[in-house]
Amino acid sequence: MGLIEGIGSYLIPFLIVLTVLVFVHEWGHFWVARRCGVRVQVFSVGFGPELFGKTDKHGTRWKFSLIPLGGYVKMFGDANAASMPDAEVGAMPEGDRAVSFYHKPLWKRAAIVAAGPMANFIFAAIALAILFATYQHPFPPAIVGVVQEGSPAEQAGIEPGDRIVEVDGRSIGRFVDLVGAVGAFDEAPLAVTLRRDGATVDLAITPDLVEIEQGDAVITVPRIGVSPDVGPYSVPRAIGMGVVETFALVGLTIDAIGEIIVGERGTDELGGPIRIAQMSGDVAQFGILALIWFMAILSINLGLINLLPIPVLDGGHLLFYAIEAVRGRPLGERAQELGFRLGVAFVLGLMIFATWNDLVQLDVVAWFQNLIS
Asked: pLDDT per residue over 226-267, tens digit each?
């Protein structure tokens, strides 16, 4: 792949995806901060030296910076992009205290910090709702859209709108799960549990065996004769499904993080900027439908990562505020500074580890090993 082609296929989609998600996250902080009466000095997409920017009438510097791997909102009273308090916070005159982040009530500070991750979740729900209302659901839930006439499903009494929740004791969430469960048919009737109008219905279905061509071969597969409702959906239903899908993806992501922590999943699944860039380019090749889905998932991941109770991340700040609420006063400066230092070390270590995983996945490490062996 040539340099120009690589930039067009991978770098540009990566920058677009990351810029949108970072902007959304920081906009959450900015929007709530302004409504809590905090003066925002800088809104930056990216870190490091400024590439270009503009100062608005409120004195906020909106800018794009050189390193596009994040962003920050610097509020009045912050010493730096990591939101460490300025040394002069305690000696501020009354007029400055009125617009200082650190002189706002605890609940306002917590709301401002939590607004970034919340904005990512809201963005995901809106993006998915637009996707469902204008295109279709790429991974539809196991809700029956069409029942084929004369099929085993019709004979068993399945109706459009039924939500299949279990087949032979196997939990069913998405339609692809139903396909897998039916595919495991071994001559015994399938025990199907579904939800209809709030009630649980149990049925027994014996699938038809259908011959289909697969390449040069003809294979026999079991079919029950239903297809999903993939949309597009009405706006109210799309909004509801966008919210439900966002909660489902949050749950799946939390489960995956938990499995990595306890060792049930390998740490090689952790990816960094290189993997995100590769995936952004690959997904972009499949069109806007896949790209919106990918951005929604990435936005959810960004929100959850920022909620981890690690100093320098939003979750770390919220942890400090929780301690402050219990103690009745904030942690001492030395304790907070130590926490931030440990947090920076952890985040940098995690980024290095994730980048190493990226290089291994792309066979860059193996290439260097072969080069020197």
From this structure: 999 888 899 999 999 999 999 988 888 888 777 777 777 766
Type of residue at 83: S
Contact present, 163 and 143 (Cβ < 8 Å) = yes
Cα torsion 263, 266, 267, 272 to 10°: value is: -140
Instruction: Compute φ and ψ for 311, nearest 5 degrees.
Output: -50, 145
Beta carbons within 8 Å of 203's beta carbon, 6+ residues apart = 156, 157, 158, 191, 192, 193, 194
Residue 43 and residue 61 in contact, taking contact as beta carbons nearer than 8 Å: yes
Q: Pick from 2, 17, 3: which is nearest to 277 by CA?
A: 17
pLDDT at residue 271 greater than cutoff 80: no
Return the pLDDT at 371. Answer: 44
Rounded Cα gap, residues 266 and 281, in angstroms: 24
Place of tokens 């930039």: 7
> The domain that contains 158 carries what CATH number?
2.30.42.10
pLDDT in tens, 112-150: 999 999 999 999 999 999 999 998 888 888 899 999 999
Closest CA to 120 of 305, 272, 319: 305
> Could you give the residue numbers annotated as active site?
26
Percent of the chain's residues with pLDDT above 70: 83
Please check whether residues 166 and 193 belong to one and the same domain. yes
Distance (Å, rounded) from C-alpha 257 to C-alpha 49? 34
294 C-beta neighbours (distance < 10 Å), count: 20
Comparison of pLDDT for 171 and 334, the residue scoring more: 171
* Domain extent for 200: 144-228
Q: Does residue 15 sit in the same domain as residue 118?
A: yes
* Same domain assignment for residues 128 and 7: yes
Structure tokens at 154: 């019709």
Residue 63 in any domain: the answer is no
